[in-house]
Amino acid sequence: MLDERLVLLLAGAAIVYGCAPQRPYRTPPAPVPSAPQTVRVPPAPPPPPAAAEPARKTLPQEAKIPEQDLKRGTVPPSSSRESAKEPPSSVPENTAPPLPDNSSLLAKIGPGTSPQRAASLRLTEEGRRLLDAGDATKALTRLEQTIVIDSSNPYGYFYLAKAQHQLRRYRESLNFLDVAQARMGGDPFWVAEIHALRGDNFRALGMIDKAQSSYAQSLRLNSGNRTASDGLSRLQPADSTGAPH
Amino acid sequence: MNKSKLRIFTNSIVVTLLLTTTGLVFGGWLLKDWQDAVTKKFEGRKWVHPSKIYSDSYLLYVGIRVRPEDLREKLRRLGYVQTASQPRSKGEYRYPAGGALLEVYLHDFAYPTEAFKGIPVKISLQDSVVTRIENATNAQELFSLELEPELATGLYERTWQERQVVKLNEVPPLLIRAVLAIEDERFYSHHGIDPIGLLRASWVNLKNLGLVQGGSTLTQQLMKNFFLSDERKLSRKAKEAVMALIAERKYSKDEILENYLNEIYLGQKGSQGIFGVSEAAQFYFSRQLNELSVGEMALMAGLIRAPNRLSPYRSLEAATKRRNVVLTKLLDDQIITRKQYDIASKEPLRHRELIKVVNDAPFYVDYLKRELAENYSDEVLKQEGLRIFTSLDLHLQKIAERALSSGLKKLEESHASLRRKPDEDSLEGAIIVLRPQTGEIKAMVGGRSYAKSQFNRVFQAKRQPGSVFKPFVYLAAFIYGGQEGGRYYPDTQVSDSKFTWVYDKQEWQPNNYNDDYFGSVTVRRALEMSLNSATSRVARDVGIRRVRDIAHRMGIQSTLPAVPSLSLGSAEVTPLEIAVAFSTLANNGVRTQPLAVKQVVNADTKVLEKRDVRVEQILSPSVAFMMNNLLKGVLDRGTAAQARSWGFNRPAAGKTGTTNDYKDAWFVGYTPDLLALVWVGFDNQNKVGLSGAQAALPIWTEFMKSATASMPVSDFLPPPSPEVPQESAPKSKCETDPGAEGCMPAATPVRQTAEKL
Q: What CATH number does residue B110 fall under?
């Protein structure tokens, strides 16, 4: 009760206080804010793609790479690289030139492709484009969906390995490569890709012998594998070329 | 005046002076205290933001099978509203062609890595299969689309205040003017309290015979919301007035207005309170503030008076009436034109179903909290507005809860021995559901009733797995072979007869169920019939340490003593461990890490943490395929064959488990795409008295029938050749050719028996 009376007393005093001159403020009839902004800024709408694209998480414009640019060039084999340390091979030696299977994964979708595999390949292709655009984090999220839809899709695992490699998680990348290889079968182009990326991981981990072996395996399957040839050349630059240390 | 009177007078003066001085000192102190409180509130942290837990998103793609009722339910849970006409606003959908076409205007959603702006889409369906998806704005074909994650629950202290804080310049001017017109016309003219406004409000209310305007200024309302209770006491009103004056002296009108528009309570969605105009725009109209129509802004302003009574969720009539009162006021004040008024007042308010957020996955959420506690304090989780994206599938979660609840009830009904008095420990159970390819935990039910017991039996209960452990024995046999050099294949003959295993000068004798022994049996038959004696003989030949090693490699983390009884599942493990180990088989020998928390994003949309899928090829795909093939036999011909008669006909593998004292009943089973484990038992270790096939299998079957209803049928595929060499995986004819004679199931089903220990 006493408290109530005291508060009333103070209220009276405060009214006097309130009516005292105050810091001036503007008194417009109504606030006129600047153009409204949304809290969430959506990305710019992507241009219409050639192939069907997912409704959500459409690629940023810079990630839209023309189909022809996705085809990576091949590098003629170097004789010195060819004569690299002979690795133990688990893959049958392929003396015939490997098929150039480095086109868009969308090309693997045919009339007999299951809907799961088709959807998984499309997402893999999108993940691949994101990786090429340097967005490994976003690619990883997309690529994880590929194995949810179709866990037998080896390309999903391969590009997951690639994303992990880009994120410098080399051991994780090696694990995904094991799975990719187990699901890949005998496609020499892709097995060579797997070995090459495995070599890159081993090199990054400082496991030079294993890296060398993996690169060599890759080149035996596909002498034009640029990743492997570049990797090998990085492993032995000084001694083989006589360049100063 | 006599002396005594003078003394009384003097004393009175002294007392009065003392009281006045004390009052002034105390009043000054109180005023200072309130001033500090106002300053602290304005300049410090005004609001706490509960963290929100989201389910996994749902990916639709061309070719996916989806039951229309499931899709409809999904849209309903996400707050989409079915309309008769073509969807024109975010959050609307319709089936214009009797189920063959679905038109949806997708919601906006801020995903961890990007913000998605809702678009209208058309989804064509034929026989429940998605045949085409297109962007309805430009007819561009899409190959997939993602429905946003569902809000599963929030993590909060006492009340859940849902609020999106916006700057004043992000609020449409018309909405501001509508709020001022209806709540505090003289806001820019008064100093915090408004006697003129009070009189005017009284007059307006009298004229309208109702409460049209309030007497409190916005500043007073803000002070009340910031500091005070709702009690109708004079002292509270006085304190509110004083604090309003303090705030007005210290802060600009715009600062006060911005705080007000973010602070104001505007509705209730179950346990979530809706605060601030931005959150309310989403809640009532699924729109951003800058997308609101004149009528919607008028309604929002009108709702401030009594958000729940006037809510369009509660009464379209009351909401429309209130909106029109505000529109009239806006027209009278010449804030809107007659044309705007005419259009807005004729805008029909659509009925929307209020989807309350109820924590449907309390055990799952507890598991998440435990995971999150490693990196985030309780305070951070409850106050910093984190958004936690998880693997949870609320559809599967509900199916799992239903299956467990009804399954346990049926068991009690059919077995009197399982019934308990209300004060006793009742029959309990647990289900965990994993996606083998990724390790994602899709659902988790840790017990029968979270309200009664929060003990999560999925990861907190350590129980003997019984026969569920046997596949590890045979895996070790396939991989390592016998210690004498013998190899094991599915068609290898093993002896199923009584024997004594001598170890460390001790003897151990395994017994078969009913003491039935079958002489010489194949490995396949021994596993399908869950024969104890044959399995123990294999374990002895292989070496129990190797069996233990395989179990650990597969994902069992509990300590496993290398003793003979381990081969029959005597070591205690959690259901989660068993589920992870079997998911390695389902995933062709690739072990994944259990994944519940996927991403944690802070209030500034910065990703604090992303947990990725982690894999490791633990078994050769051939060995995994061989074991899957054997465990398919358990469902097709063995101890779990009843699942087929109950209507679960997909290719699936699994294993029943019963402990030798009938305290635990298990079934773990999987298709290539989904694994579920069911455990049934009593917390106090009472006997269930039923086998895994009798107690756990019916619940598993019930769950899997519903859970896989819209999934494509898939079988375990043999690995492509050649494959990764596995040093630890010796080649056998069944590995290199799992279809060879003796490796594939026997043509003639073997005699079915009840669960063997």
A: 3.30.2060.10
